[in-house]
Amino acid sequence: SFGVLTTDTMEQAVARSGSKAGNKGAEAALAAIETVNVLKELRSGKETE
Predict the structure, then answer these.
(1) Residue 2, helix vs strand vs coil
(2) I need a surface site. Which of 2, 33, 38, 42 has the fewest CB within 10 A?
(3) pLDDT at site 35
C-alpha cells in the first residue's frame, strides 16, 4: 500500500507516524526485508526458521 502523510508541523508528523497505531512505514520496511530474506533462502535451497 502507499500513503502520504500530510502535516503542518513536525510535531504533527511525529504524532501521526508513530503514535498508538505504531509506525506503519517502519513495519512495511521490515516486512519487505523479511520477504527478501525468505526469497533468498528459498532460492538457495536453505530451510527457513
Answers:
(1) coil
(2) 2
(3) 94
Which amino acid, one-letter code, is at 45?
Answer: G
* pLDDT of res. 44: 92
Nearest residue to 26 (alpha-carbon basis) of 5, 49, 48: 5
Q: In this structure, are residues 38 and 45 in contact, taking their beta carbons and an 8 Å threshold?
A: no
State the chain's mean pLDDT as an integer.
Answer: 82
Distance CA 45, CA 13 (A): 43
CA 16 – CA 26 distance, rounded (Å): 13
Q: Which three cell numbers stand for residue 39?
A: 526469497
